[in-house]
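Here is the promised in-class demo. Please do not try to memorize the tokens; focus on the logic of going from shape to residues.
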């Protein structure tokens, strides 16, 4: 298992200096994705699997098509994620009580426990990307990101 953050042989600030703002943002997003994937590896869960667990933990049982919409992935990709979670015993498929032609997916008890454990532990792992920032810089960045999302 690698380090939580990549080791740069060159000065990362110098690398970013030549990038456009959008490129720099993508580079930081890539760092966060790497940290997230490495953090999840200890639970043998991929980022896609965790996103599905988190949505099911938050919203409860739903149809696979609804889950694919939440995940913003193709239904076929959602099926692959669900198949892998089912193989691990973290979700189960069952009939939709309101439409017998439809299927619902729900977390199993081990899925609920794992999702809650990961939620509790991993926030700190991915937040470490921002450890290089002062509290004031973090506050400014949070304000700017909220503004961009408006």
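The designed amino acids, position by position:
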């Amino acid at each position: 298992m690698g380090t939580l953050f990549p080791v740069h042989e060159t000065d990362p600030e110098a690398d970013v200096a030549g990038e456009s703002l959008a490129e720099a943002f993508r580079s930081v997003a890539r760092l966060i994705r790497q940290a997230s994937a490495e953090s999840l590896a200890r639970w043998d869960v991929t980022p896609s699997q965790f996103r599905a667990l988190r949505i099911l933990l938050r919203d409860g049982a739903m149809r696979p098509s609804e889950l694919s919409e939440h995940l913003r992935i193709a239904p076929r990709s959602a099926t692959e994620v669900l198949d892998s979670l089912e193989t691990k015993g973290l979700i189960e498929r069952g009939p939709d009580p309101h439409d017998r032609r439809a299927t619902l997916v729900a977390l199993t008890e081990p899925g609920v426990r794992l999702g809650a454990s990961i939620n509790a532990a991993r926030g700190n792992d991915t937040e470490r990307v921002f450890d290089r920032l002062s509290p004031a810089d973090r506050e400014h960045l949070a304000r700017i990101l909220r503004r961009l999302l408006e």
